[in-house]
Design goal:
- The protein has one helix at 43-46, and strands at 14-15, 22-23, 31-34, 39-40, 52-55, 69-72, 77-80, 90-99, 102-111.
- The N and C termini lie far apart (59 Å).
- The longest helix has 4 residues, at 43-46.
- The protein is mainly beta.
Length: 112
């Protein structure tokens, strides 16, 4: 007896938005960026591509509330707001989406 696994995921077109670096001035109004959806031409076979944001420094997931940087996977909205000068610095971020047989990443940095 032997087993055969067939991968029906045949990506021909993959659409992923550009993630540009963001510069935020402490005390300014919130900076809100809503990214377009990541799509593939075979999402039914491959599954959806839902990007998850993580900090490159420790691979922790970006908070969904209560932080100076928040990200919603459902709306693809990134929000930055703080008045705390102790949070000044750079925050390298990676957005990763995984579907059947494929992992896609986009990197960017938030400068506060």
């Amino acid at each position: 007896m032997f087993e055969v696994t067939v991968n029906y995921c045949k990506l021909t077109t993959l659409t992923i938005p550009t993630y540009s670096d963001i510069y935020y001035d402490i005390g300014a109004s919130s900076t809100i960026v809503t990214y377009t959806a990541w799509t593939s031409s075979y999402s039914a076979e491959c599954g959806s591509l839902t990007p998850v944001g993580t900090y490159q420094s420790d691979s922790s997931t970006i908070a969904t509330s209560g932080s100076h940087i928040i990200y919603s996977t459902s709306t693809r909205r990134l929000t930055i707001r703080t008045t705390n000068f102790n949070l000044a610095g750079s925050y390298p971020i990676t957005f990763t989406a995984t579907a059947t047989g494929i992992t896609v990443t986009r990197d960017m940095t938030i400068y506060i």
